[in-house]
Specification:
The protein is of the alpha+beta class. It has two domains: about 120 residues, no CATH class; about 40 residues, no CATH class. The chain is built from three helices and eight strands, in the order βαβββββββαα. The mean pLDDT is about 90.
Length: about 170
């Protein structure tokens, strides 16, 4: 949910720009088998009414994305910024699936802000660029401890174990 923007003035004055700031609350989202939380979400920009009674919103949305490192599974918080360029209409248009809807004079930014921020999320979250990840054998976090599993073994990368499984499977 977001604080609704009151667009009654804009609808009476088509073409006039109205600056705004709004906070948006979004639920957690399942993305790439992790739950990503967008927190402290805020949007800042301006809106105007078009001559045909639609509302154009242009804004910068910012949030903190909280998820888990894809290698070591520790929690990661990454700032995200996105440009929102959304068109709202009271009347759905089957030819324009990108239109957002609104009723009366209250415009809810939630969907447009979420859609813009999701596109800017990283493909995968990392706690640091050189995260060492988890030991494929014992599961230890290799950023914090040096386990002895790999000494003398041939599991120097997490894929070699997987490769063995695949090879064994092919032999059967
Ligand atoms: Zn990590
Ligand atoms: Zn280990």
């Amino acid at each position: 949910m977001a604080e609704a923007l009151n667009v009654s003035q804009a609808l009476r004055n088509p073409g006039q720009l109205f600056p705004f700031e709004a906070r948006v609350t979004l639920p957690g989202m399942e993305i790439f088998s992790d739950t990503v939380f967008l927190e402290d979400v805020r949007a800042e920009g301006e809106f105007l009414a078009t001559d045909d009674g639609r509302i154009s919103v242009k804004a910068t949305a910012r949030a903190d994305a909280r998820a888990h490192c894809s290698r070591c599974l520790e929690e990661v918080v990454t700032p995200v910024e996105a440009q929102v360029d959304a068109l709202y209409s009271r009347v759905p248009d089957p030819d324009d699936p990108d239109l957002y809807g609104f009723e009366g004079y209250a415009l809810d930014l939630t969907d447009a802000v979420r859609d813009a921020l999701v596109l800017e999320l990283p493909m995968r979250f990392l706690c640091k660029p050189d995260c060492k990840g988890l030991c494929p054998t014992c599961g230890a976090n290799l950023n914090r401890v040096a386990c002895t599993c790999q000494e003398g073994g041939n599991t120097t990368n997490p894929f070699s174990a997987l490769k063995n499984i695949v090879l064994n499977h092919e032999e059967v």
